[in-house]
Amino acid sequence: MMIGSKKRAGNAGFTNQVEYLLTDTVPFAIQEAYKMIRTNIIFSIPDQKCKKILVTSALQGEAKSTTAVNVSIAFAQNQSRILLVDCDLRLPTDAKKLNAQQSPGLTNLLVGMCTLDEAIQQLPSGLDVLAAGDIPPNPSELLGSPRMEQLMKELESRYEYIILDTPPICAVADATILSKMASGVILVVRQGIATRENVNNALEKLKVANAKVLGIVMTGAANEKTKSYSKGKGYGYGYGYADNYAKAQMQIGDQKNESH
Ligand SMILES: Nc1ncnc2c1ncn2[C@@H]1O[C@H](COP(=O)(O)OP(=O)(O)OP(=O)(O)O)[C@@H](O)[C@H]1O
Ligand SMILES: [Mg+2]
Questions:
Q1: Dihedral, CA atoms, 39, 44, 50, 52, nearest 10 degrees?
Q2: Which ligand sits closest to the CA of 56?
Q3: Which Pfam families match (predicted)?
Q4: What angle do CA 260, 3, 69 make, to 5 degrees?
Q5: Which domain holds residue 229?
Q6: Cα 251 to ligand 1 centre (Å)
Q7: Among 61, 93, 115, 156, whose Cα sits 20 to 30 Å from the Cα of 196?
Q8: 28-44 and 223-230 helices cross at what angle (nearest 10)?
Q9: Is the minimum distance from the CB of 10 to ligand 1 under 6 angstroms?
Q10: What is the pLDDT of residues 228-238, one digit of tens each?
């Protein structure tokens, strides 16, 4: 199995969707990387009953959805009450990645076409997922609506953790709008795709929105760094930018070096 090769985004060395879902059979280093993200989230937001974590990146194809899905699975493995919400109402992929249904989902719920119980899918992994639903003409408007805020409140009473998967923050306003409802934000940065400027732009947008950036998850990291990581030395590696934010930096990279 290969995760995070330096091929172009949108393919990146994965041969099929199932291969990189977090399961007990994926290499140890990959499992550990996602567990470490889980631990860092737990410690970064200690005092809230329901922790709402938004996952975004500067650009398209940086592995936001993969990160959101796998971190959610890592929480489910921990027996946490966890809900993954696909808030990418433009190019949603979470349902497909998880072999779940695309609708009814968030959009259907927001316009009153179904109930919460009809929209939430309980997966065998223990993870609950609210898929994006039918693609709407006005994603930003829906996500910024009072109904969305009300829905988040309802969900807070049911779950310990809510992970919000979003579109790229430099492309559309959706992630910025949602960051106001989140306890914290994880910024995914893919090596070889996002430039320093892109990352700084993304961080600036989050700063203006008053969002709490919990950390940066690096994806597509180069071999050598990942080797270090899998030996337990890679934690804390960064590019030098966003030092103030990078409390939970980690790489999920080219983990060709199989489990050990
Ligand atoms: N850790 C990783 N390292 C490198 N590539 C990855 C990693 N995780 C997933 N990928 C690959 O990156 C591609 C994009 O993944 P994903 O759909 O998660 O990105 P995204 O940021 O959600 O994209 P979009 O902006 O379109 O929503 C996928 O084809 C996937 O195979
Ligand atoms: Mg995505």
A1: -90
A2: 1
A3: AAA_31 (PF13614)
A4: 105
A5: 22-252
A6: 14
A7: 93
A8: 80
A9: yes
A10: 333 333 323 23
